[in-house]
Give the backbone structure.
Amino acid sequence: MNRILVTGARGQLGSDLVVALRQQYGDSQVIESGRSHPQDNSSLYEVLDVTDQSQLEAIVKRYRIDTIYHLASLLSAKGEQHPNQCWEININGLRNILEIARSYGIKVFFPSSIAVFGPHTPKLDTPQITVEDPSTLYGITKVTGELLCHYYAYRWGVDVRSLRLPGIISYSAPPGGGTTDFAVEIFDHALRYGHYTCFVRPETRLPMMYMPDAIAAILMLMQADSTAITIRSSYNIAAVSFSAEELVKEIQKHLLDFLCDYKPDFRQAIADSWPSVIDDSKARADWGWKHRYDLAAIVEDMLAKLSLTNIQKQLDKDEERQATSDRRQIGVRG
Ligand code: SER
């Protein structure tokens, strides 16, 4: 049976992963959690600070959790701004999850990142096993996290699986303070304002992936036979690599008037320290990973889906405005 807990469930990745998990395993099998109360009062949501071991254990016991997708984390840019919080959540939070997993025989998914790599890592076709000399605290927490996962797998037999995710592009929920956020923000700005100011230089080339591919990769990895999993630190995983400028050109094929200018900020140095193209042959060989979306397909789908979402948001707003005005009129008459 799968009784699943998702930490950081309302973040960029969690928002889409929860939907996919509920489709696969049933609504009531998937418990969301996060640090704040959700607006929708969902009965399958628990407020959880992953640094609080007893709170975590109570939830695991209450729902008889057997699988955790541990997404709660501070990303690269936010991690530089809030280093203590980044360490607490990313390191102590993960250790709590692994300890609970060890005690209760829980299977764990841990998202690592291309941020484990650094200036001395080969930038092209970055191998699975290579130099990991991250220049961000976030990257340091992810390298440590990978080592912890490997340790808990081999020392304690915890079934923990992990992917070094690239920048994830999606439309359901905004990204939360990463360096690759420009490749997401750009779509909304292009549609709304016809203009975007990009915080990395045009030639900045990074590994990226469309959300449906990221979800497919996570599900494939978690559903693979455990004998197929030969890497317990974290798998290199890749889909596409493109520069900011190539992304702009692809969007301009659909939105002819779209303009982008460039004002690099502190995130440029982070982006420069990461690889451009990742070699993920191990994931492809071990459990059959294959991506579906290239740059053209990502841009086409993102623009279509985001346009629909924006229309829906506008309709919701109009409906809300109308309802407020109706209530006022009833109030005046009453
Ligand atoms: N998308 C992440 C970030 O930019 C990389 O893991 O921080």
In short: The chain is about 50% helix and 15% strand. Residues 75-76, 113-115, 165, 167, 178-180 surround serine (CB under 6 Å). The chain has a mean pLDDT of 95.
